[in-house]
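Each letter names a residue; structure tokens follow underneath. Both lines appear below:
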Amino acid sequence: MALSKLNRFHWHMTDSQSFPFVSRQYPQLAAHGAYSNHEVYTVEDVREVVEYARVRGIQVIPEIDAPAHAGNGWDWGPKHGLGELSLCINQQPWSFYCGEPPCGQLNPKNNNTYLILQRLYAELLELAGPTDFFHLGGDEVNLECWGQFFNDTDLRGLWCEFMLQAFQRLRVANGGISPKMTVVWSSGLTNTPCLSKNSFAVQVWGGSTWQENFELIENGFNLIISHVDAWYLDCGFGSWRSTGEGACSPYRTWQNVYKHRPWNRMRLTPQDSLQQ
């Protein structure tokens, strides 16, 4: 990264398949969610990565993905008197209830879920901070999952409630101070008016011609562009689907990576103020 003049490392630490971060406050997350007790990130591991990056001029921005991609690792709540922390865990058929298997989506009406997130944020800020950027996740939220449990609720409003509550918990964890910019992944929900463009930036992961690109720009959001059709380096290496191509086949060659010009594909004009 340093040789390539890249100075921010967004560390997507958790996902659907594993919760490897060994939290001091909630070691149950890794105990239930890591592949094994050897396939984890300890506090010491995180400190080592942050220091290794720091001396090379690189800032580490850790992320605990939420509310989706949060199944394995979150299924111990009832045993500890905290209620259901996550819903739809390992539910089948997975394609109805999550973007990728195994399913799991945090419970937006359980206050213990937010308390755990707040304490996780505090730990990560202590290890990686202080930081002017923070990533709240928000990838591939599936409203069908929540709809099973809260079918009398405005589900888009419930998503807003979750993200704003997570943002407030981040502020508490950061000593009452909002980061300069809080990032969320793009989805069909990120244009919901509840997110302030002054507080949130959107990391666009979809294709460069997807409609969300244009809608977010028109609504004045700052974007981090991570287009799957050019800059996903893991594409072409396998699939969770039983038939058809992988999630993002084919493999992205270095020619694809370097010739990608999102400002051309997205038809941006000078007034859009795209910062390369």
User: Anything to note?
Assistant: The chain has ten helices and eight strands. The longest helix spans residues 155-173. Residues 183 and 201 are 5 Å apart (CA to CA). The mean pLDDT is 90.
